[in-house]
Specification:
Oligomer: single chain
Number of strands: 10
Number of domains: 1
Structural class: alpha+beta
Shape: globular
Order of helices and strands: HEEHHEEEEHEEEE
Radius of gyration: 16 Å
Strand content: 15-25%
C-alpha cells in the first residue's frame, strides 16, 4: 500500500486539471462516451472578483496534524459520494460512466470518469477505483451529496456540515494556492483522506477523497 500511495501522490498534478476542466455531463446506458472538456475553472470565480492573498486567509496551527479517524469513516465518506465502493473495477461499472478525455489520457488509459450525478472517479492502472472527486461547478444549483453538504458553499457553512457528518471532527485548514483554491481543509480516515478546497472568497470549489493515505 505504501508504494502505491507514493505513486498516487505523483498523479495529483496530472489528475486535477482534468477534473476541473469538465462541466456538467451525462451518460447513456450501456455505452461509454468520450468527452472533450472545456476549461471552466474561470467560472468558479468571476474575472472581476478580487482574490484574497493566501497570507490573509486564517488557517489552523501549522504544527497540527489533520484529525485521524477510523477506517469506518472512510467507508461512510465514500458512500456519501456514491454507492460505488473503493476497489471496484472500472469494467464492472463502465456503462454508467463517461470518460473525461484530457491531455491525450485516452492513449495511455489514464483518464478520469464521471457518473450521471456528476461524481468523478480515477481507477488505478485503469481498473481499480482509488479516488473520488467532486467539481463543485458541476453541482451548480444542486445538492452536493458528499458529507451531506447539500447546497451550502461558504467555508464556514461547509465545515459545519462536514463536522456534523464526522461526529464533531474538525478538518485541519491550511493555505493552499493550487487547483483554483486559496485554502484546503483535510481529514484523515484510516488509510485514506479527504480534502476540501476553497477559493479566495471562501467558496467551496472542489472535494477529493482518496482510499490510500499519502505520507
Amino acid at each position: 500500500m505504501a508504494a502505491r500511495a507514493v505513486k498516487l501522490r505523483g498523479l495529483l498534478p496530472l489528475l486535477l486539471p482534468a477534473v476541473f476542466a469538465v462541466g456538467g455531463c451525462g451518460a447513456s446506458e450501456g455505452a461509454e462516451k468520450l468527452v472533450k472538456s472545456d476549461n471552466v475553472s474561470n467560472q468558479v470565480v468571476p474575472a472581476s472578483a478580487e482574490a484574497v492573498p493566501a497570507s490573509a486567509v486564517p488557517v489552523d496551527d501549522a504544527a497540527a496534524l489533520p484529525p485521524q479517524l477510523g477506517q469506518q469513516w472512510l467507508d461512510k465518506a465514500s458512500l456519501s459520494f456514491s454507492p460505488v465502493k473503493f476497489g471496484t473495477t472500472r469494467t464492472s461499472i463502465k456503462p454508467a460512466l463517461v470518460r473525461v478525455v484530457e491531455n491525450n489520457c485516452d492513449q495511455v488509459e489514464d483518464c478520469t470518469y464521471v457518473d450521471r450525478e456528476g461524481v468523478e472517479y480515477y481507477f488505478w492502472e485503469a481498473d481499480e477505483l482509488v479516488f473520488k472527486f467532486i467539481n463543485v461547478e458541476r453541482f451548480r444549483g444542486r445538492d452536493i451529496p458528499a458529507f451531506d453538504i447539500g447546497r451550502v458553499r461558504s467555508k464556514d457553512d461547509v465545515l459545519k456540515r462536514v463536522e456534523t457528518f464526522f461526529d464533531g471532527a474538525r478538518p485541519l485548514c491550511e493555505a493552499h494556492e493550487e487547483y483554483g483554491s486559496k485554502i484546503a481543509c483535510e481529514l484523515d480516515m484510516g488509510e485514506g483522506w479527504t480534502k476540501l478546497f476553497f477559493d479566495g472568497r471562501d467558496q467551496l470549489v472542489y472535494i477529493r477523497l482518496d482510499m490510500a493515505q499519502i505520507n
